[in-house]
Design a protein that fits this description.
This protein is of the alpha+beta class. Helix content is 33%, strand content 28%. The strands form 6 sheets. Strands 3, 7, 8, 9, 10, 11, 12, 13 and 16 form a 9-stranded mixed beta sheet that branches. The chain has a 5-stranded mixed beta sheet with strand order 20-19-21-22-23, sandwiched between helices. It has a 3-stranded antiparallel beta sheet with strand order 4-6-5. Helix 1 crosses helix 10 and helix 11 packs parallel to helix 14. Bound molecules: 5'-O-(N-(L-cysteinyl)-sulfamoyl)adenosine.
């Protein structure tokens, strides 16, 4: 992508409405624009990151055996009357009347709708276990949307729903999602810690939140530092095998949000030097809620004995759009964002330090052509800004690799490669850069 033809409305100043660094940097880096309270337009740079995050979530859901579909954002109010949540959900629910005065709502979550789909087709335990998911926009009319995409009103969520014959089966489905979440967040360069959690409006009696440590997080957390060094399951993890050893390993080290924290246990179990009380961002939450929805909505299957029983369900959410902010909270410095390579909007930025110099322009064009031909996502800053402005922009938007092309270096057949994450620099030939990044 040539920057001269891209749409990247970088802001010079810190927007005053931004209270936390991720909100500030997303606005300054031209990643998004607020259209209404808690409602954002995703501009090209931010949208690229959102799609990369979404794709990692998708790959790990698929690896765990979940099946992707897409449910609508609009739902019938009557569906929520069946489960009894229409009134219970309260003011966060955006209620809509269509031209025929039919009562609709903009879905804050999809337990009712997925249960309606399930019960319409599945009648036998032989079709279980089943896990269906989608990645879809949600609306929750938050009292105080704030911190940019961290607490929006319209936001992108991956929500998966599992269906099993009994609790034992449902726990196996729960464990698959637990492991998939460990892998998902690790692939984004995050340490997301699973913590016992309250179940709230979703219901049930088993839930874990996945929390990324960040001073600006909304959740207070208490952990044993050892949890930060636990191994994340590899891509060869056997989802049809026994996952309980992994679950046990990750749940036997103390980690709890403030609303379920047990101070006495924390002091008893965790040596002083290993105790960490900080804040975190909830990037995902998983729930087992048994027959809460299948009872009220009659989602029954015939068991092995032929008798109809309500299925045991669970739901598993990931804050896809919240993750864009959460990753910035975890990966930034004073100069701007430091994208982990797996989610960066572009892999490399070519900075032409002397626009109009034939040798420099030629070397940049050749690098751009060769890297692109090898499938490397490149942003070529071919604008006529001063070098200093190009350095600042590249640091701000957080591209992992910066290739600085100037007349002096080229005279020695070299360009400078700067690694954004640690600021390390290397001089090498353009050919070596292509070999390194391709
Ligand atoms: N207002 C919001 N803005 C951005 N992300 C949000 C918001 N509310 C929730 N999320 C994200 O969505 C994830 C799942 O939301 S949830 O309420 O915990 N769970 C559910 O809705 C269940 N139906 C899971 S399928 C959260 O972990 C959080 O990362």
């Amino acid at each position: 992508m040539r920057l001269s033809r891209f749409f990247l409305p970088i802001l010079k100043e810190n927007p005053k409405e931004a209270e936390i660094v991720s909100h500030r940097l997303m606005l300054r880096a031209g990643m998004m624009r607020q259209e209404a309270a808690g409602i954002y337009a995703w501009l090209p740079l931010g949208f690229r990151v959102l799609k990369k995050i979404e794709q990692i979530v998708r790959e790990e859901q698929d690896r765990a055996g979940a099946l992707e579909l897409l449910m609508p954002t609009l739902q019938l109010a009557d569906l929520w009357r069946e489960s009894g949540r229409y009134d219970a959900y309260g003011p966060e629910m955006l209620r809509i009347l269509d031209r025929h005065k039919r009562e609709l709502l903009y879905g804050p979550t999809n337990e009712e709708m997925i249960t309606e789909i399930f019960r319409s087709y599945i009648k036998s335990y032989k079709n279980l276990p089943l896990n269906l998911y989608h990645i879809q926009w949600k609306f929750r009319d938050e009292q105080r949307p704030r911190f940019g995409v961290m607490r929006g009103r319209e936001f992108l969520m991956k929500d998966a729903y599992s269906f099993d014959l009994d609790e034992a089966g449902a726990r196996r489905s729960y464990n698959k999602m637990f492991v998939a979440y460990l892998r998902t967040f690790a692939r984004m360069g995050l340490k997301a810690i699973p913590m016992r959690a309250e179940t709230g409006p979703i219901g049930g009696d088993l839930s874990h939140e996945f929390i990324v440590l960040a001073e600006t997080g909304e959740s207070g957390v208490y952990i044993n530092r050892d949890v930060l060094d636990l191994p994340v399951p590899g891509e060869d993890v056997d989802y049809d095998g026994d996952l309980t050893p992994i679950i046990k390993q990750w749940t036997s080290v103390y980690a709890a949000t403030e609303d379920v924290h047990e101070a006495a246990r924390f002091e008893r179990e965790v040596p002083e030097a290993k105790r960490l009380n900080t804040r975190g961002i909830e990037v995902g939450q998983i729930f087992y809620f048994g027959t809460k929805y299948s009872d009220t909505m009659k989602a029954m299957v015939a068991g092995p004995d032929g008798v109809d029983v309500p299925i045991h369900g669970g739901s598993y959410g990931v804050g896809v759009s919240r993750l864009v902010g959460a990753i910035i909270e975890a990966c930034h410095d004073d100069a701007g964002i430091k994208w982990p390579e797996a989610v960066a909007p572009f892999r490399a930025a070519i900075l032409n330090l002397k626009q109009g110099d034939a040798a420099v322009d030629g070397a940049c064009e050749q690098l751009y052509r060769e890297l692109s031909a090898k499938g490397v996502d490149v942003l070529y800053d071919d604008t006529d800004q001063r070098a200093g402005a190009k350095f600042a922009a590249a640091d701000l938007i957080g591209i992992p690799w910066q290739i600085l092309v100037g007349p002096k270096g080229l005279a020695d057949g070299k360009v400078e490669v700067k690694r954004r994450s640690d600021g390390s620099r290397d001089n090498m030939s353009p050919a070596d850069v292509v070999a390194k990044l391709a």
